[in-house]
Write a structure and sequence with these properties.
Number of strands: 4
Protein name: DUF3579 domain-containing protein
Strand order of the largest sheet: 2-3-1-4
Strand content: 25-35%
Largest sheet: 4 strands, antiparallel
CATH topology: Alpha-Beta Plaits
Number of domains: 1
Organism: Pseudoduganella plicata
Helix content: 25-40%
InterPro entries: DUF3579
Structural class: alpha+beta
Number of helices: 3
Length: 103
């Protein structure tokens, strides 16, 4: 199972990060970085499955899959540095199996 982490739209001192569409902008910039064979004709119109916007507990966030590091290390570094430069909270994701899952 791939490892992921969240970049939350909250600074380390708990303030909401602006602009309000930061997650969509970041994911738009990263849309061209994707696993081989998942692009297709309209890939530029879709977020990468490796860097996608989401909401967590009412806070905008970006989910980053660590596979990005293998595909394009500089893109992975860019995302990590974006979070560090803007003092955003970064949280490792964990897999919580659904009842009945045998994982």
């Amino acid at each position: 199972m791939a490892s992921e982490f969240f970049i939350l739209g909250l600074t380390t001192d708990g303030k909401q990060f602006r602009p309000s569409d930061w997650a969509e902008r970041l994911c738009g910039v990263m849309s061209c970085f994707r696993p081989a064979g998942t692009g297709g004709r309209n890939a530029h119109l879709q977020y990468s499955p490796l860097v996608r916007p989401t909401m967590t507990n009412g806070v905008k966030a970006v989910v980053v899959n660590d596979t990005l590091k293998e595909i394009e290390p500089m893109a992975y570094h860019f995302v990590r540095q974006f979070a560090a430069d803007n003092k955003l909270q970064v949280v490792d994701a964990c897999h919580v199996p659904l009842p009945g899952d045998k994982t």
